[in-house]
Amino acid sequence: MKKDERIYLDHIFGKVAKDSPYDPGFVAKIQKSRQDFKKGKGTEVTLGELDALCK
């Protein structure tokens, strides 16, 4: 497995690799956002709604 693939998979599964090129603070914000969404905070947008916003 290539280094970039391993880092990507580590981020998908919630692990931050020590040699990750990503800013740990940014990764923490993304993880908090995911947790907040699971708790019902946030807004779901369908692809149709997103498409309409981009027009």
Descriptive labels:
mainly alpha; 55 residues
Briefly characterize the structure.
This protein has 55 residues and is mostly helical. The chain has 3 helices and no strands.
Q: How would you characterize this protein structure?
A:
The longest helix is centred in the middle third of the chain and has 15 residues, at 24-38. The model has no long low-confidence stretch (mean pLDDT 77). It is built from 3 helices and no strands. Helices cover 58% and strands 0% of the residues. It has one domain (3-53). It is extended and about 40 Å long. It has 55 residues and is an all-alpha fold.
Shape: extended
Distance between the termini: 40 Å
Number of domains: 1
Count the beta strands: 0
Order of helices and strands: HHH
Average of pLDDT: 77
The low-confidence parts are none
Can you lay out the helices and strands and say which pair or pack?
Elements: H1 3-12, H2 24-38, H3 47-53
